[in-house]
């Protein structure tokens, strides 16, 4: 007998209700912990699969209406990891073999031998258990990868990661918004990796980079001879991404003509290649990103309101770096290490005053600007430690000056900002390293425990969340 952390549920499907009643008595007699559901036809079986967590389905092949083979295909579309055993008479072995090719775990011939039935069900349930464990393990790994993909421990980043985990569980369209450089493409990769489509491709179309007359062909494909230069038939990225995920990057910049055709694809779940009279069904999850205010564009008449609501089923907003400045030291360290790897250099570290200085700066280009700056620091630093001299050198190399004619801050105010940012970054790092142990953090810092507690309170840092 296979052990299960949760007693398994079996779904028995046959139009002869007395037969499924007898199967249920047989199975529950041997395994009282098992739960058996019965369905008299395919429609009832699919309803049960939608509402219940089923470990194994045992179905007859010959039934009125939708037969067992068609039910098998529909059931695996609902739950790809479901183990299915089919029942067949001696005269339909070829159909049973077809069922195996379609994804059934095994088949049994009627009349069913009790011992053979129980052995087969045990093996099929063991397969279901292993698949469930594998799914949980892969989900855990993907969740760990999320922390690597999106660096940051601020409240804004924790909230973003929670949103990503939530939206990844569905197949609904997601609109990813945020300023340029906030990591919208990384967010899309994270959603895809945590989704059930992770084993299929994630393809990206940079909408503004493709001329309007070519974007339709890029998205939907074209027939040979559809336009000048179309010397062969092309599938289009919607079809190429079949079973996976498609990111429409900077969707706010597409023309009204493409918007209209895209709306039809989202409504009908099919594409019509340029020059073709037939439509092709597509199975793809849509993610769309933009740095534009689409509702403002709707008011201006440059973006379709109905398309906006088709895209905006679920929304994820990438926070600007100004909203999570406490993440800047973490990001800076991450990008410095990444830059060293890219250039094949030994690892470098930052002098103690550098993270605070970086956290106090404005980053209008967000994470991308910080990443580029750390690459420059890696180039200018020839030793093992990045100090303020190299920071100023990198700043002068990019010709930094006060933007828009703003008056420079006073020395006192600028210094206070740097000290404030450094203190927050330093204490946050200490608490991370000590897992929220304030006494140990005080010992490492050389501060009295009371003094450190006052700093933590003054900067409104929650030590408990690091435990």
TrEMBL record:
The keyword DNA-binding applies. Residues 9-125 form the Response regulatory domain. The modification 4-aspartylphosphate is found at residue 60. GO terms for biological process: phosphorelay signal transduction system; regulation of DNA-templated transcription. Residues 150-379 form the Sigma-54 factor interaction domain. Keywords: ATP-binding, DNA-binding, Nucleotide-binding, Phosphoprotein, Transcription, Transcription regulation. Coiled coil: none annotated. GO terms for molecular function: ATP binding; sequence-specific DNA binding. SMART domains: AAA, REC. Pfam families: AAA_lid_14 (PF25601), HTH_8 (PF02954), Response_reg (PF00072), Sigma54_activat (PF00158). This is Sigma-54-dependent Fis family transcriptional regulator. It comes from Oceanidesulfovibrio marinus.
């Amino acid at each position: 007998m296979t052990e299960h952390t949760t007693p398994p549920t079996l779904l028995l499907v046959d139009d002869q209700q007395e037969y499924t009643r007898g199967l249920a008595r047989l199975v529950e007699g041997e395994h009282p912990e098992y739960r058996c559901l019965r369905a008299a036809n395919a429609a009832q079986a699919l309803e049960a699969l939608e509402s219940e967590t089923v470990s194994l389905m045992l179905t007859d092949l010959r039934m009125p209406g939708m037969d067992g083979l068609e039910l098998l295909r529909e059931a695996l579309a609902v739950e790809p990891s479901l183990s299915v055993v089919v029942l067949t008479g001696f005269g339909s072995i070829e159909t049973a073999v077809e069922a195996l090719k379609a994804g059934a775990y095994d088949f049994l011939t009627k009349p069913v031998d009790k011992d053979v039935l129980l052995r087969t069900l045990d093996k099929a349930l063991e397969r279901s258990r292993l698949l469930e464990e594998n799914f949980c393990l892969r989900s855990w790994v993907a969740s760990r990868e999320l922390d690597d993909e999106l660096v940051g421990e601020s409240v804004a980043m924790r909230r973003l990661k929670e949103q990503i985990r939530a939206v990844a569980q569905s197949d609904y369209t997601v609109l990813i918004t945020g300023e340029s450089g906030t990591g919208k493409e990384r967010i899309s990769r994270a959603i895809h990796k945590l989704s059930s489509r992770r084993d299929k491709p994630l393809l990206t179309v940079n909408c503004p980079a493709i001329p309007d007359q070519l974007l339709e062909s890029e998205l939907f494909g074209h027939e040979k001879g559809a336009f000048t230069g179309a010397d062969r038939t092309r599938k289009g990225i919607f079809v190429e991404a079949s079973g996976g995920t498609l990111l429409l990057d900077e969707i706010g910049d597409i023309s009204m003509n493409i918007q209209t055709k895209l709306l039809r694809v989202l409504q009908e779940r099919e594409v019509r290649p340029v020059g073709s009279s037939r439509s092709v069904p597509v199975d793809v999850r849509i993610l769309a990103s933009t740095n534009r205010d689409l509702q403002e564009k709707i008011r201006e008449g440059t973006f379709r309101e109905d398309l906006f609501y088709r895209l905006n089923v679920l929304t994820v907003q990438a926070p600007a770096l100004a909203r999570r400045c406490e993440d800047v030291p973490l990001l800076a360290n991450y990008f410095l290490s990444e830059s060293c790897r890219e250039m094949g250099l030994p690892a470098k570290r930052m002098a103690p005053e550098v993270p605070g200085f970086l956290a106090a700066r404005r980053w209008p280009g967000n994470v991308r600007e910080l990443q580029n700056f750390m690459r420059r620091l890696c180039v200018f630093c020839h030793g093992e430690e990045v100090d303020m001299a190299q920071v100023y050198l990198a700043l002068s190399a990019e010709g930094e000056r006060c933007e828009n004619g703003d008056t420079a801050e006073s020395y006192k105010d600028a210094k206070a900002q740097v000290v404030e940012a450094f203190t927050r970054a330093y204490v946050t790092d200490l608490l991370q390293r000590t897992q929220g142990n304030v006494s140990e953090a005080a010992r490492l810092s050389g501060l009295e425990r009371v003094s450190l507690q006052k700093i933590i309170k003054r900067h409104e840092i929650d030590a408990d969340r690091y435990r």
